[in-house]
Each structure stands twice: as C-alpha cells, then as structure tokens.
C-alpha cells in the first residue's frame, strides 16, 4: 500500500509508473487472499496497462487494445451486481490517464479513479483498500498542490536536513582589521 502511495509523490511520471507496477503485484496478492476475482482481474489488466504505457505512451491502438481487454474481462467476470463494474471502470479511466496525461492532469484523473476504488472498497469491506484510498486521496491532493505551486523541484527534506546539520559555522566578521592584518601574510 505504501509503495503505491509513494508513487504519487514522485515528480517523474515514468518513475511513478514503475512504482505502481511494484505496487500492483502486491494488490494482486491482496485480491487473491480476499478471493475477489473481479478486482483481481481488474488489477491484472492494470498491471498489463502500466507495463504497456511505459513503452507505448500516447499510442491510440495500444490504448484501444487495453480498453478491449478491460471490457472482455468485465463481460467474463460480471457477477450481476452493478458495484462489481466499478474496478474495471476505474481501470479504463486510469488507462486513459497513463497513456495520454502527465503531471497535474494525470494526478487529478487518478483522484477520481481513487474515489471509484474507495466506493468499491467500502462496498466490499476491504479495510486495507479503504485505508489505502483515503491516504491516496490526501497524497494526490498534496502532490497536486506541489505541482501547482512549482515546489516539486525544491530541495528534498532529507537533503535540507543534511545541509543544516553539516552546515559550517559562520565566522565572525571582524571587518577591515582582519583584512589589513592578513594582507601582509598573503603577499
């Protein structure tokens, strides 16, 4: 869960997708454990989509194949409940984002996708899924704020802490006296 959440904070979209691939493997294991095959199918499509979106960014034909695969899994796995369509709808919407959007637009779309997943997890009583989506919503809002204010390229917290800890002590400025006195030594 925390691996996926960290993906929203990364400013490079390619690194974000790679982090989501790792996270996706853990979500596949989660849905296997819950015996939730609908969400498992959606997450497998999610994994395929992420891998393909790395190589085929803005490729309409690959995107259409992903949507076709999503619809096929949806038809095959439909269990008669309308709520069970939500994971594949979320997968389809986020597919568009990963293939065609970047930075703020991608994260805003992913906020809507996260909301769909939150509704689904609330209906299936997946506590880890609910917790994940609540944290994801907050993280997305934070990352959109950082992108909107231009702070995504600022110094990282650990770097700032290191700089302050290892900062050389400031020397006392004695002004002209030191300059005139040291002048003879350097000539």
**Helix-strand string:** HHHHHHHHH
Radius of gyration: 24 Å
Amino- and carboxy-terminal Cα gap: 65 Å
Question: What is the beta-strand fraction?
Answer: under 5%
What count of helical segments does DSSP give?
9
Q: Class by helix and strand content? A: mainly alpha
Please describe the biggest sheet, giving its number of strands, its sense, and whether it closes into a barrel.
none
| Poorly predicted regions | none
The shape is globular
Helix content range: over 70%
Mean pLDDT across all amino acids:
79
Total beta-strand segments: 0
Describe the structure in your own words:
The structure is a single chain. By secondary structure, this protein is mainly alpha-helical. It contains 9 helices and no strands. Helix 1 packs antiparallel against helix 2, helix 3 runs antiparallel to helix 4 and helix 6 (103-124) runs antiparallel to helix 7. It is globular.
């Amino acid at each position: 869960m925390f691996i996926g959440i960290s993906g929203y904070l990364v400013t490079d979209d390619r690194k974000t997708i790679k982090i989501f691939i790792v996270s996706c493997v853990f979500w596949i294991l989660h849905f296997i454990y819950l015996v939730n095959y609908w969400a498992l199918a959606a997450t497998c499509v999610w994994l395929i989509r992420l891998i393909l979106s790395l190589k085929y960014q803005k490729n309409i034909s690959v995107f259409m194949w992903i949507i076709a695969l999503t619809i096929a899994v949806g038809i095959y796995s439909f269990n008669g409940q309308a709520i069970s369509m939500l994971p594949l709808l979320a997968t389809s919407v986020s597919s568009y984002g990963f293939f065609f959007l970047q930075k703020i637009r991608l994260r805003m779309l992913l906020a809507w996708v996260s909301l769909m997943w939150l509704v689904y997890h609330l209906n299936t009583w997946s506590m880890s899924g609910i917790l994940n989506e609540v944290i994801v919503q907050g993280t997305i809002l934070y990352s959109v704020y950082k992108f909107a204010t231009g702070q995504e390229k600022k110094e990282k917290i650990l770097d700032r802490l290191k700089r302050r800890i290892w900062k050389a002590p400031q020397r006392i400025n004695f002004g002209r006296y030191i300059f005139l006195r040291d002048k003879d030594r350097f000539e």
